[in-house]
């Protein structure tokens, strides 16, 4: 919360409301402190488990904050009360934005903690997948490299995956974000949005889209990214005991 309030101060704006996608601590743990520090703060969400919740939202409900319009998109699966937020401004040349929490990631989707493959398939195809293709996707975590390594395992011949992975690795090395992507891009490299493609069906051994998605999620849950080979000079340094003084217990 303190990082957020520092950004609020730098931008010279007033924090009036918080939109929370779901109740997990890594998405909602700052709500109580924000509410304490900002009296009158409105906290929106669809799950009673969300900390400091003041306004419960419902599927397809629309909110307005100044010129910003928000449509609440109900995407149960990762949690039973997960809500995504689609935002736009009428007459603005900027692309709309989707805050997708842990439902849709760059190159991936969230784990099915409290839901089913059927629910996630509906989320990705009927709810989020039906949004304008230019929509910018702001997801809840920077796990793009790991997601794309899995996507490359699934589709080793997909040139778009290879290019996106190389780009994401470079961004990581430079400590720069890979978020946002666009919905149009996601359909080119995100395996969870490509369940009707022949390569995905071949990889999973399934043809029915929901079953492809179910099998993909199981594979991803068990996926271990390839270990990076240790730097040869670092190995030599260990062999020679050069790190000894740093490793001794106090």
TrEMBL record:
Cofactor(s) demanded: Zn(2+)
Taxonomic classification: Eukaryota, Metazoa, Chordata, Craniata, Vertebrata
Organism: Anseranas semipalmata
GO biological process, any: methylglyoxal catabolic process to D-lactate via S-lactoyl-glutathione
Protein name: HAGHL protein
Record's keyword terms, sorted: Hydrolase, Metal-binding, Zinc
GO molecular-function terms, A-Z: hydroxyacylglutathione hydrolase activity; metal ion binding
Highest taxon of the lineage: Eukaryota
A family per Pfam: Lactamase_B
Family that this chain belongs to: Belongs to the metallo-beta-lactamase superfamily. Glyoxalase II family.
